[in-house]
Amino acid sequence: MSSQPKPHILFTGQEIAATVSRLAAEISQDYHDKHPLLLGILKGSFMFMADLIRHLDFPLEVDFIRLSSYGRGSQTSGKVKVVQGLSSPIEDRDVLVIEDIVDTGLTISFLLDYLRKKRPASLKLCVLTDKPSRRQVPVAIDYLGFSVPDKFIVGYGIDWSEKFRNLPDIGFIEMED
Ligand code: IMP
Fold first, then answer.
1. Which of the residues 83, 97, 125, 148 has an alpha carbon 20 to 30 A from that of 138?
2. Burial class, 73, CB count within 10 angstroms (exposed 0-12 / middle 13-18 / buried 19+)
3. Ligand 1: centre distance to CA 77 (Å)
4. For this structure, is 103 an active site residue?
5. 3-state class of 80 per DSSP?
6. Cross-strand pairs, 37
7. Is 114 helix (H, G, I), strand (E, B) or coil?
């Protein structure tokens, strides 16, 4: 078995649960009468989405979209494309995008532009972890879980070369450049 770096924990599963429930309360207040579409970005948002919607006690729908991003390395290419698209139209829907991490902002900006062209009634963004120090393009985050340092984040669905998604905590690993 190949060795892998040991993550340094930033937020425990318990802290994440409290944050997810805080986000759910904010979202409930704004969306309880809107029958929104929650749109998760694969793969990283699957765990966050699953925990978040269990707190939302009103009618909603869920969809997922998959974008190309880092591939198997750790640096963004800046080039984004839709690998797996929406399964139903979003025209006139209240769409809430659920993202695991915003780094340079290139991926999410591309997605928001792509979605805006499909004329949703509203479009908002919920992000679990944000690395503001790395931003290359401005991104307006409507619901934010955690701000994180400029480190390579893993855990709670977020991967490093497909590893660590199953970690119940959020941590970082030291990257050797
Ligand atoms: P951005 O386009 O630079 O904002 O990067 C967004 C995407 O890159 C995220 O959806 C992740 O897939 C990936 N990413 C960025 N930073 C990290 C990190 O620290 N850990 C794991 N994936 C990351």
1. 83
2. exposed
3. 11
4. yes
5. coil
6. 61, 95
7. helix
Tell which one of 69, 125, 133 to mutate to probe ligand 1, the residue whose CB is within 8 A of the most ligand atoms.
69
Query: What is the pTM for the complete model shown?
Result: 0.93
- Counted residue by residue, the chain has a size of 177
Active-site residue, selected from the candidate residues 103, 130, 159, 169: 103
120 lines ligand 1 (CB under 6 A): no
Contacts of 14 (CB under 8 A, 6+ apart): none
What's the CA-to-centroid distance between 153 and ligand 1, angstroms? Answer: 8
Q: Which has the closest alpha carbon to 130: 108, 151, 145, 112? A: 145
Q: In what order do the strands lie in the sheet with 61-67?
A: 82-84, 61-67, 37-42, 94-102, 122-130, 143-147
Longest CA–CA span in the chain (Å) reads: 51
pLDDT at position 1 over 80: no
Instruction: With beta carbons less than 8 A apart as the criterion, state whether 58 and 85 touch.
Output: no
